[in-house]
Design a protein that fits this description.
The complex is a heterodimer.
Chain A: H1 13-23, E1 36-42, H2 49-68, E2 77-83, H3 88-100, E3 106-108, H4 113-126, E4 130-132, E5 149-151, H5 156-170, E6 175-181, H6 184-199, E7 203-210, H7 221-226, E8 231-234, H8 238-250, E9 258-261, H9 271-274, E10 282-285, H10 294-307, H11 313-332, H12 337-344, E11 348-351, E12 354-358, E13 365-366, E14 369-376, E15 381-389, H13 391-395
Parallel strand pairs in A: 1-2, 1-3, 3-4, 4-5, 6-7, 6-8, 8-9, 9-10
Antiparallel strand pairs in A: 10-14, 11-12, 12-13, 14-15
Helix pairs in contact in A: 2-11, 3-4, 5-6, 11-12
Chain B: H1 4-8, H2 18-48, H3 52-78, H4 86-103, H5 107-129, H6 134-153, E1 171-174, E2 177-180, H7 184-207, H8 209-219, H9 231-257, H10 267-280, H11 286-305, H12 309-323, H13 327-345
Antiparallel strand pairs in B: 1-2
Helix pairs in contact in B: 2-7, 2-13, 3-7, 3-9, 3-10, 3-11, 4-5, 4-6, 4-9, 5-9, 8-9, 10-11, 10-13, 11-12, 11-13
Classes of the chains: A alpha/beta, B mainly alpha.
């Protein structure tokens, strides 16, 4: 047993802590020269940390540029980061701290949809606004929409609409087979794309769902071949995609078959392991670092210079958010919640991804969507833009009824 | 992950014999009383300075303290390591959320429904888990919780991975008076009152013959039948009791945060509860409460300071296992009793 590692003062631990905690708050009346504070609740540790890293880089780069150019109405932007561990229970606690203790004017960064929904509700109860730059669950701007939540990135429906649109143009009347991971999100992603593809004339030849983390996909290859599809749609992610595509390649199934999929199926994280088997994979997405616009090329060059890597979708959407916020604050003349909300509704702004417009009816950004094809020779990869779907064609109806 | 066998040896020495009972147990209750006064002092300071956030953070710590107490009942008093206590916590949270959102915004109805659900699920889980002992018990409880968490995660009617939002803030009625869960101070005091009640009730029960029998099971389960007791029944009873405590604690969560998500049932939640108990003091009931407050405060402060906060919590856990083998409360008690002895010997 130890020689009592705690000092005598430990008796006073609880009240001391209480005092410490209570004195931690910094009440500050906002003056014109005060910085505008933006809270960022994003996963900085755990599985989603690579996404949180892109969010952080995108926001920091944009903030640096805005501040260097004189800030927003003469006020500098200050970012306050908190780790949400991709857990809504942690995210709400951290967001509440940012709202009530740090008195942030705006909040962003949540990655998984559960965190965005929970923090959105918290924002409503605290009378502040938030925006997500990553979550793509349709619910956030449809049946669970909130007057205090904005989404500047493309939702799942826009991604599948864009992909279906490209498919109808490039491979009219395609015979499509679907292979998804067997859990709620995997199934709903397949269902969403299936209905979009069938609307644009594609023919469904069958579907199969494999358990998450499957080691062997060859058991599904018989059904796949028997259905004789010209296109395979998949919504697997991470290492599941690695195994699926490499095994298909080993079985020679990639010949005469176009593989399309959800935007998270092949990413910068797993493309190295997939290697040459990723060649020709097409997805519908809101951004590619290969976009040839001057805005994007300047953004990619600045991003590479600062962080020595290319931005991905999350980095680009997060970068664009600061422009959105700046434009809205300048239009509103301040950060008051109600006037800021009014200013954000219907606002159009420029991003590396092209011009975006925030739809007033459901707080979902409308943007041009891209069909992106991967060109891979096994060592280096490019995400080539092979088609553009205009924002209006991909956005879909406004299904939000709350405001 | 420490093994169940090593954890058993960490439990408190407070049950050595009836003669030493009063002198050994009283300091624990003193500690609880000091804690209560400190908590009320904290509430007063936080209220006076208008710090709703810290009151709500402390409320959350007390809610997770309820979960930790339920782990302590099993680990500290009976010697059963549960790695799946979040199952009952999450169940209580979901039942409470559904009742408040879809049936009626009634505090008492939500608590009753959570208690009922926790008791039933605890009975089923207890019958399954108590078929085996030691590390296998730990694995079964872990597995049960994983199955439940994955089921919720994939059930669209329960919000699947997104969880459920829109749980209303409610008024809690006590006859003529009522308080509002949206008011940080009132809700903190309510949860503090419930925690103290749970502590008092469970301490009493652990001092009663029921608790003595559990201590006997922890010491040597094979000899318990020779004393005329059915060890299996007692283990099932304490398992159901722990499930009920966890479910009631869970039922408070959506009232505080307004949502539930499957993460509440994940292993992270169960694992944190075990860490809380070990840091606070196994087999003391007040230890888990203090551990929960300490760790919640640390996570909040350190988490804002660095993203490597999990390392800090991990190091604290290891240090307390190595140096404070009876946890925070054990160290405090040793200090109190030494001072008491010193007072007696000195003129």
């Amino acid at each position: 047993m130890s020689k009592n590692a705690f000092p005598r003062s430990v008796h006073a631990l609880s009240p001391l802590l209480a005092l410490l905690m209570a004195s931690g708050a910094a009440p500050g009346a906002a003056q014109a020269a005060d910085p505008i504070r933006i809270g960022v609740v994003t996963p900085l540790s755990g599985t989603y940390a690579p996404i949180g890293q892109q969010v952080r880089w995108g926001l920091e780069l944009a903030t640096k540029e805005v501040n260097a150019a004189g800030g927003v109405m003469g006020r500098q932007i200050e970012l306050l980061f908190e780790d949400e561990e991709a857990n809504p229970a942690v995210a709400t606690q951290k967001a509440e701290k940012l709202f009530q203790v740090n008195k942030v004017d705006f909040l962003t960064g949540t990655v998984n949809s559960g965190s965005t929904l929970a923090v959105g509700q918290l924002a409503e109860r605290n009378g502040r606004l938030i925006a997500t730059t990553v979550s793509f669950s349709d619910a956030i701007t449809t049946d669970k929409c909130s007057p205090n939540v904005f989404r500047v990135n493309a939702r799942a429906g826009q991604q599948s609409a864009a992909l279906a649109e490209w498919l109808a143009k490039d491979k009219p009347k395609a015979k499509v087979y679907y292979l998804g991971p067997d859990y709620e999100m995997g199934r709903s992603t397949v269902a969403a794309f299936k209905s979009a593809a069938e609307k644009t004339g594609a023919q469904s030849t069958g579907e199969v769902f494999a358990p998450l983390g499957s080691k062997d996909y060859s058991q599904y290859f018989g059904q796949l071949r028997a259905a004789r599809p010209s296109v395979l749609y998949t919504s697997t992610a991470g290492n599941d995609t690695v195994r699926l595509l490499t095994q298909m390649s080993e079985y020679g199934l990639l010949r005469n078959l176009t593989i399309v999929g959800a935007s998270g199926t092949v990413t910068a994280q797993n493309i190295g392991a997939i290697g040459k088997a990723a060649d020709g994979f097409v997805t519908g997405v809101g951004y590619s670092a290969e976009l040839a616009t001057p805005e994007n090329q300047a953004f990619v060059a600045a991003f590479r210079k600062e962080y020595n890597t290319a931005p991905d979708l999350y980095g680009a959407d997060s970068y664009g958010l600061i422009g959105f916020f700046k434009a809205a604050v300048e239009k509103a003349g301040g950060t008051d919640t109600d006037t800021l909300r009014k200013a954000m509704e219907g606002l159009s702004w420029t991003t590396p991804q092209g011009s975006k417009t925030m739809r007033a009816g459901d707080h979902q950004a409308i943007q041009d969507m891209y069909a992106v094809r991967i060109a891979s020779d096994g060592t280096s990869n490019r995400f080539d833009v092979v088609g553009t779907v205009p924002g209006d064609a991909a956005i879909g109806p406004d299904l939000c009824t709350r405001f | 992950m420490p093994e169940a066998t090593t954890l058993r040896t960490l439990s408190d020495p407070g049950h050595a014999g009836p003669a030493s009972r009063l002198s050994r147990l009283a300091p624990v209750h003193w500690l609880a009383l000091i804690f209560l006064v400190a908590a009320l002092g904290f509430a007063a300071v936080a209220w006076a300075t208008g710090n709703g956030f810290y009151l709500r953070l402390a409320t959350e710590a007390l809610i997770f303290a309820g979960l930790a107490m339920s782990v302590d009942l099993l680990l500290g008093y009976t010697g059963l390591l549960s790695l799946g206590q979040a199952l009952y916590f999450g169940l209580g949270a979901y039942v409470s959320a559904l009742v408040l959102r879809d049936v009626a915004p009634s505090f008492w109805l939500a608590m009753a429904a959570a208690l009922l659900a926790g008791g039933m699920a605890g009975l089923i889980g207890g019958v399954i888990a108590n078929r085996v002992k030691g590390v296998y018990f730990a694995l079964i409880t872990f597995g049960l919780a994983q199955v439940a968490a994955k089921t919720v995660y994939n059930t669209r009617a329960l919000g699947a991975s997104d969880g459920l939002i829109g749980i209303p803030q409610i008024r809690v009625g006590f006859g003529p008076v009522s308080l509002d869960t949206a008011d940080p101070l009132s809700f903190f005091l309510l949860v503090l009152g419930l925690t103290v009640t749970a502590y008092a009730g469970l301490s009493y029960l652990m001092d009663a013959p029921f608790g003595r029998t559990l201590a006997a099971i922890r010491a040597n389960e094979k000899r318990v039948p020779f004393l005329g007791f059915n060890a299996w029944r007692y283990k099932l009873a304490v398992y159901v009791l722990a499930a009920c405590v966890a479910a009631l604690a869970g039922a408070l969560y959506p009232m505080l945060r307004g949502f539930v998500s499957p993460e509440l049932m994940f292993f992270e939640t169960s694992g944190n509860a075990v860490i809380t108990v070990i840091v606070g003091g196994v087999g003391t009931l007040v230890g888990p409460v203090m551990g929960s407050l300490l760790l919640t405060a640390l996570r909040s402060v350190v988490g804002s300071w660095t993203e490597h906060h999990l390392i800090v919590v991990g190091v604290i856990f290891m240090l307390s296992v190595i140096f404070l083998r009876k946890g925070l409360v054990g160290a405090l008690l040793a200090r109190l009793s030494r001072r008491g002895e010193a007072g007696r010997t000195a003129p």
